[in-house]
Amino acid sequence: MRRYYDRTDLPAAGETEIDDPAMRADHVTGGATYQDIDGELFVDGPDVFDVQQGRLPDCYFLAALGALAHTNPQALRDMVTDNGDGPFTVHVGGEAGDVTVDDDFAVDGRGRAFHAGTGETDNPELWVAVIEKAFAQVEGGYTDIEYGWAHEAIAFLTGHDGSTVRAPSGFTSTEIAAASTKGAP
Q1: Where do the DSSP E strands lie in the chain?
Q2: Is there a contact between 125 and 54 (Cβ–Cβ < 8 Å)?
Q3: Coil, strand or helix: which one is 139?
Q4: What is the CA radius of gyration of the chain?
Q5: DSSP states of 140-185
Q6: I need a labelling partner for 53 at 20 to 30 A (CA). Which of 47, 67, 125, 167 fits?
């Protein structure tokens, strides 16, 4: 996986947009097609239960989104702008800057989201799929975001260094509660 902070071809600020057809090529053998999914960016605000993993092995990224939804849902509201009639701008931290994506998402033969889920079919909530798509665009495509570390996803999303502990048993429940109280995802 290419890390956004290792990329020298990204502008320091401004809008970054990678052509969608390059991302669509990721799915030629996966049986996915792209279709416009109409829905609300946020139905009832960001919530950890909105995060649903599809067929893409990017659980680390979705875990980071879930952690932010739990600790700082306003940050997620502020992260995405609905530009009206399809495109969204995702404001991410670090070098990536702003990333514009459309509302076309990979779906399987039954019309279900191939990657991050969008919730109820009659009232789709798009924020998770939109942010995941922006991450994939910056990294070069959906296959480039397979497998990774949640702390690196947090760094991408917030622009702040993330950290990870390989042995969670080294934390006491008091330390975990204190970190959560401080808003640490």
Answers
A1: 15-16, 33-36, 80-82, 88-91, 98-101, 104-107
A2: no
A3: helix
A4: 16
A5: TSGGGGSS--HHHHHHHHHSSPP---S-GGGS-HHHHHHHHHTT--
A6: 167
- 79-94, pLDDT tens digit by residue? 999 998 779 999 987 6
Within 10 A of 85 (CB to CB), how many other CB atoms are there?
A: 7
Q: Is 29 exposed, middle or buried (0-12, 13-18, 19+ CB in 10 A)?
A: exposed
Cβ neighbours of residue 8 closer than 8 Å, sequence gap 6 or more: none
Structure tokens at 37: 């999914």
Q: Average of pLDDT values for 101-111?
A: 84
Strands ordered across the beta sheet of 80-82: 15-16, 98-101, 88-91, 80-82
What per-residue confidence (pLDDT) applies to 9? 39
Vertex 23 angle, CA 147 and 149, to 5°: 15
What the block records as the tokens of 31 is: 């049986």
Answer for the pair 67, 150: CB distance below 8 angstroms, yes or no.
Answer: yes
Predicted TM-score of the model (pTM): 0.76
User: What's the Cα-to-Cα distance from 32 to each of 64, 119, 141, rounded to whole Å?
Assistant: 25, 18, 14
